Amino acid sequence: MAADDLRSLATVAAAVIACMGYARFTARRLRPGLPRLAAFLPVLAILPFLPLAFRALHPRAISGFFLAWAAEFKLLLLACGQGPLQPTLPLPTFVAIATFPVTLRDPKSSAARPGLGLAESAVMAALLAAIVSLYRYEERMNGYVLLTLYSVHVYLALELVLAAAAAASRALVGLELEPQFDRPYLSASLRDFWGRRWNLSVPALLRQCVFRPVRARLGAPAGVLAAFVVSGLMHEAMFSYITLLPPTGEAAAFFTLHGACAVAEGWWAAHERWSRPPRALATPLTLAFVGVTGFWLFFPPITRPGADKQVIAESEAMVAFLRDAAGLAVDSAWSILSSWS
């Protein structure tokens, strides 16, 4: 991260703390409803602009997800007296829950899953570094092979970034947090992939903000489709943070298509006597559908303007920095051991 972005990080962090402190202060004094929502409007208006303070793509995209999506939705829920935020929380805990896409773990739940461990994180980081090293041969790669590498890159990067955010929340304020992913490569259906395995903090927010209100009025299928449509619109915003270009509509189309297919899956599953493929076949079919539609609709808004090249360049710079830092640490340790001997 460049020096300018380090200064931007300090400025954005200070602004976020101030915004969340104000939101917590007003929420303690106003009841849920229109008065609280009106009081939150300045914060809701400021947060989406903060990621634009970063020049580098990665901090701009990550902070866009944290602030313009997760934090906005959580504040809207708080305005209605719902969601994970509570005005009685200590300020550090309030800020952590508001800004990081994390889900609190129920300590009484016996089904709680362990988070991403140190060994798993190390393996994923090594795999991500290996993928980044392969990009030097991208000119000689088949286009679909390259997009497959991009898909795995996105998964590994999200796993590591969200696990790091959860670890920071745990270390700073002692929160017990749910893991963000649950082995999405084992998904046997789109509903399984998007609802129970992929980036779990997002479906948790969409379930409260979109699915339940729409289901109460129009039924569960409409609620599912509405949640996917909103997810698509938010991904359009995330892609605009990445490319700094207007939305293209392709991400919205991708998630609307998946929403319609998830509704169809639910309709089929409701007929218990109707046949369904065995898991050994359903899993590769699900992953293939996600991959093929992703190649068609998800990646083009990023690859067309060349934003993927910037992702690769920043990733290569990060891998080189970590490699040099690790080498320096090993050399220093060796020098210390040599001096003792």
In short, what is this structure?
With 341 residues, this protein is mostly helical. It is built from 13 helices and no strands.
Written overview of the protein:
The longest helix is centred in the C-terminal third of the chain and has 34 residues, at 307-340. This protein starts with a helix and ends with a helix. By secondary structure, it is mainly alpha-helical. 32% of the residues are buried. It has helices spanning 3-29, 34-46, 57-79, 91-99, 118-134, 143-173, 190-197, 201-218, 220-243, 250-269, 279-298, 300-303, 307-340. The radius of gyration is 21 Å and the shape is globular.
Q: Quick check: average pLDDT?
A: 89
Strand content: under 5%
The biggest beta sheet reads: none
The H/E string reads HHHHHHHHHHHHH
Low-confidence stretches: none
> How much helical structure, as a percent, in the residues?
over 70%
Tell me the total number of β-strands. 0
* Count of alpha/pi helices: 13
Radius of gyration: 21 Å
Ends apart, CA distance between termini: 38 Å
Going by helix content, strand content and strand pairing, the class is: mainly alpha
Overall shape: it is: globular
